[in-house]
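Researcher: I'd like a structural prediction for the single chain below. Treat it as a standalone chain; there are no partners to consider.
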Amino acid sequence: MLTGQALPAPAEQVDKRKLRPKEYSDDSRSLLEHVWALMGCPCGKYLVVMRGLWLPLLAQAGDLDKPFATAEAVTQLQAMSAATIDRYLAPARKSMQLRGISTTKPSPLLRNSIELSKVGDEPATTPG
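Model: Treating it as a single chain, here is the predicted structure.
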């Protein structure tokens, strides 16, 4: 690797794909996550329908007075499609996902209430 051929620049990938510039800025992505959390974490399709109602109300309430909530970021947020919103919110959803095992245990009452027959016991004479 040290003496071999130099690696291509990231813009000239091995499979000849062109790297496209980002369509939406980082501020609009941060604003999207902020608005999504304020709205109660809806999916992208619901967020697209509700953003026309919510964005003016959030701006009026002062919830969009963040440093990343510029006029350009708000315009870009209004132009995002539902699929783009879901794609940009995937890391935030994954970080909010519950992890770990359940802490509930089965009750010992159930285990003690069921009688098990052993090899030396007489066979039961009554059904049930």
